[in-house]
Each structure stands twice: as C-alpha cells, then as structure tokens.
Amino acid sequence: MDIQETFKNRRFVIGGVAIGIVVIYIMRLFALQLLSDDYKKNADSNAFRRDVLYPSRGLIFDRNDSLLVYNEPSYNIMVTMNDQRGIDTLDFCETVGITPEFYEKRCDEIKNSKGYSRYTPQVFMTQIPAEEFMLLREKLFQFRGFSIEKRSIRRYASGIAAHVLGDVGEVNEKDINEAEDKYYRSGDYIGKLGVERSYEKQLRGEKGLRILLRDVHGSIKGRYQDGAYDRTPVPGSNLTLSIDARLQALAEQLLEGKLGAIVAIEPATGQILCMASSPTYDPRAMVGRERSKAHQQLAKDPMKPLLNRAIMGMYPPGSTFKITQALLGLQEGIITPQTAYPCSRGFNFKGLHLGCHGHGSPIALVSAIGTSCNAYFCWNLYHMLSNRQKYASRDEAMTRWKDHLVRMGYGYRLGVDLPGEKRGMIPNAPYYTEHFGDWGPLSIVSISIGQGEVTATPLQIANLAATVANRGYYYIPHVVKDIQGGRIDTLYTRPHYTMVDAKWYDYAVAGMRAAVTGGTCRGANIPGYEVCGKTGTAQNRGHDHSAFMGFAPMNEPRIAVAVYVENGGFGATFGVPLGKLIMEQYLNGKLSPGSEAQARSFQARRINYGGYER
Questions:
Q1: What contacts 30, CB < 8 A, 6 or more positions away?
Q2: 65 lies in which domain range?
Q3: Are residues 327 and 441 in the same domain?
Q4: Which of helix, strand or coil describes residue 174?
Q5: Rounded CA separation 103/91 (Å)
Q6: Shared domain check, 414 and 460
Q7: Phi, psi angle pair for 543, to nearest 5°
Q8: CATH number of the CATH domain containing 201
Q9: How many structural domains does the chain have?
C-alpha cells in the first residue's frame, strides 16, 4: 500500500469521527432542549419563587360544642441558601437565640436534606412563637436570604383526653415516604397520635401556592401574572367528637393514682362518650419545639403514660366475661334459663377445684349472673365441649365457642377510629393443641369465667355492655361524631349482630339487673334509674384486677360503661363505684352531693405499684 492510499484511508476515519461527534452533540442538544426539563427547572428557580401557603388545621369540639383543640399563630424561619451568603451570622444568631455552632450545623443539614435546592426557601427553624417573631421582624431586612413563613401551632383548651386527641409534630422521612398523595415536605406537620393521626387528611386541609417573580439579583419584583396561577389554601375540616368533656374529666379524675381505663359508649350509636386511660399526660405539653423533649420524658416513664390502656391494654376480663358464656350456652341449647348447677363454694369435678364465694345451690341462670357464680359457667362450658350429640368432636365445639365470641366483638380489633388498638386473645382448638398437646374441657374450663388464655381490652368489655343493652347488636365504637363538610365512615353506622337470638339477651339483662338490686353490683344503684351491671374480679399474679361493666337505663339504655383498675381487688372495690359515678354524671348531667363526696374520696385513693405510687 503506497503513502497516498494510506492518507486517503485516514481521511475517511477522521471524517467518520467528526461526523460521530456532531451526531452526539445533536442528540444531546435534542435531549436537553426537548426531552429534559432540568435547565428549565433551574431557570424557573432563578426567575420564580414559589411560596407554599399553609391552611389552618381543623378545630376539634366535644359533643356539646365545647372547643377542645384550636390553632395559634407561629412562624417558621426560612432560608434560601443561594442568597444568605455575606450576612452577619453572629448578629443573626443573637437575634434568634442560637449559637454559631447550631447555625453551621443547621446549614449543613439543609444542604444534605432530600430535595434540597439552593434557589428555593428551606426550613431553618420551626414554630417560632409570636413574641420571638416580633424581635426578628424588626431586623429581618439585614439578613438577606432569610424570610418568614406564617404557620400555626396546635393548642389544647384543657389538659384532658390526651390519648383521644393525640398531638401534632414535624414530619419525619418515614411520614414523607409513606404519604400516598406526596403532600408532605420537610418542615411540615402531621398528626402523630389519637384523632390528630387517624383524621389527619380531614384536619390538615389543602395547601395554597403563591408564585413571585425575581430579578437576576434575587430581588422580588411582584406576583407572576398578577397571581393568575396562585392557589388559596383550603382550611381543614372541623371535627365534632362524641366525647363529653365533663364526663371525660370526671373519668380521668377518678383514675388518678391508679393504672387502668374507663370507657363509656352510647349503645344506640356506638359513639364513645368518654375514654380515659391512667396514667395520662397533659396534651398542652406536647406542642411546639418542646414536644420532642416532652415525648422522650413520657416514653421513659415506667408507668407508660403514652399507652392508651383503653384500647391497648389486654387484660383477663374476669367475671364480666360470664355474660358471653351465658348467651352462647342458651343459643347452643347447652342450657336453658331454668338449668341449675350445683356450687359447693366452687366447681368441683374429677379432682379439679375452681373456687367460688358462698351462695345458694343449686343455682339457675339469672341468679348465677346476679351472684357471679363461677361453678355455673364452668359447668356450662364443660358440657358444651363434652357434648358429642351436638358436636362431632371437641375441636368442633371449641370452634363454635370461638365463633360466638368473635361475633360478640372479641379476639379481633373492633375497628375504633384511633390508632394502636389491640385485638385481645380468644383461643381456639389449634392453639391449645399446639401449646397444651393433649387437652380436654377440664384443662381449659377457666376461660368460661374470663381467666386462662382469654384477654380483652376495656373497649371490648364496654362494647359487650352496649351489645347486651341493645339485645344483640352493636355499632363499632368511634370517637368522631361529625366531620365538617363530610360524613363519618359507614363502617360506624352499620349494626353488627351476634350469633345469639335477641330473646336470650333478656335473661342476660335480668341477671345484670339482679346483680344491682341484690347481687355483687349493689353499689351501682342510681335513684330513678334501673341500672344493670356485672362485676369482674380478674385473678392476677399480684393483687386481683377490679372490673365492672354495666348500662342504664335497663329498657332505654343511654350509656354503657366498662371500668378496669389494675390491682384494684374485688370488682365491687373500684369497678362498681367508679362505673356508677360515670353513669350518674352522664344521665343527670351532674353528681348528687353524696356522689361528689364519693368521687373526691376515690380521686384521693392511690394504689402502690411496685414502688411507683401515682
């Protein structure tokens, strides 16, 4: 190959490379100008400033329109990192009350945050109260790149209902990532607990937008196209709770110095009239920049004040559970209202003794409920699990028993409109086979009286009282009565029927009425009302738990209540009198002078829990 031919080939190679480079440049220009909006975004960031306008959060009222939660103005300090260079940082730090070290640390955090842009305002400090804002506003013109974003802070009218109301805090990365509608950005607030959490979408409202024009120096020159593309924020919806604030306050006072819960329900609607858990805390401490510190202190408290025992406490229901055993026994034909069983101070059979207090024997159903006879309900369950004429096997009988309890609202979450509800425990045949191996009716007979493996929440116990009051159905308990401009979920307006015929509930009602007129609930009598009740003394490794459930009036029920006091002893010691006071307050709108004195007495009584006396 001669030299001329070699130069000719190189010419083609060089030409091909040049053409390739041109093609690549053309493709890149096409992508940048037509397919990518990166440069447009950067240009827009220089030309426009988009200010988010935050809506006011919805107010919260009680059932009598008493204001429980409202808003108060607060301010966020915003910084545009591209503009803040050259300011007197020491003067700025002294003005807002921070150290230079905090200033540098916060700037680094902003630069490393998700979605950071040096051209757009970023949150520097949050929830500045009005008095601090006034000091900053006078000197704000000196701190180029810093601006003020008007926000609001949640305020609670009183110190009650912390577990129901919940609180509001700044979003974390998990909140932002889990939001279905990408509503949140760093610095936004979100409901953390209670109603504030479960009704977050209704309460938060919709953000607005204001687009401002900037010149090449970053100075604001006015609104873009006279605000044609601005959006006005839409305030959040107000909520009306079913909670009665005065009843709630009384319930919390009665539980002072004790661990436990009180839940009251309106049977006709499932609306929760009060839900108290003790110990509790003051929701007014969980606002502003001090929220995080207050939350940490509460989380470290060994008495667990953040735990809503009304829906998270899983307790043995004790003798309140006997009502379920009576009803399913009647429905299944295991007993009749006239069936009588012996009780020699307890259930005694094949060497097993399960104790009971003294009363007449043999005893029929209504009297057994009234006197809370352990033996009666043990015999009831034993005969059900042993019946081979009705059930092909022990497991089939056990499954039927479990199915009844589930339809009565046990063993699964009821679905209350609050976060964190626990399901409790209703054992089934596979559970016993796995844990006990070869088991029989006698080895599990204690579940018939609410002991053994059975656990329930105070809410579930109150729901049972409401179901008996309604003679066989209930509405899922809920704390929100009305939503401004909307409606509550139909989940809370549909009745749920048990597997027991309504006629059998009359005998449960008669037994609970007998317990008040001459049985274990005599302390629940309220003049002018036919009160029905059932005590519960739940065995425990330490002192027994004191429980009560009841409703009134008997034939036109307006309130159903459950009381549970840990280590409170007999059901009549704490459960009955506290339940009576709650019912009287709601039915009459006040307590009699004698009941007021009784309430003060119980408020002053403290129970020592392993050295922690509250």
A1: none
A2: 48-240
A3: yes
A4: helix
A5: 12
A6: yes
A7: -70, 145
A8: 3.90.1310.10
A9: 2
Return the residue matching tokens 């009198």. Answer: 577
What pTM was computed for the model?
0.88
Whether the Cβ atoms of residue 347 and residue 374 lie closer than 8 Å to each other: yes
pLDDT in tens, 387-417: 999 999 999 999 999 999 999 999 999 999 9
CA dihedral sign of residues 93, 222, 41, 231: positive
Place of tokens 């104790």: 355
Distance in angstroms (rounded) separating the CA atoms of residues 468 and 330: 14
Question: Residue 148: which H helix or E strand, with range?
Answer: strand 146-156
**CA–CA distance from 86 to each of 92, 145, 179, 281 (Å)?**
12, 10, 38, 46
Residue 146 contacts residue 308 (beta carbons within 8 Å): no
Tens of pLDDT, residue by residue over 537-551, are 988 777 899 999 999
**Per-residue b or e along 408-445, where b marks 16 or more CB atoms closer than 10 Å to that residue's CB:** bbbbebbebbbbbbbebbbbbbebbeeeeeebebbebb
- Tell the residue number behind the tokens 């207050």, with chain if given: 294
Q: Which residues contact 307 (CB under 8 A, 6 or more apart)?
A: 277, 313
314-371 tens-digit pLDDT: 999 999 999 999 999 999 999 999 999 999 889 999 989 988 888 888 999 999 999 9
* Secondary structure of residue 311 in the 3-state scheme: helix
Cα–Cα distance for residue pair 474/479, rounded to 1 Å? 15
The residues, any chain, with a CB within 8 Å of residue 541's CB and separated by 6 or more, are none
Q: What is the distance between the alpha carbons of residues 525 and 233, in angstroms, rounded to a whole number?
A: 54
Q: For residues 369 and 339, what is the distance between their CA atoms, to the nearest angstrom?
A: 13
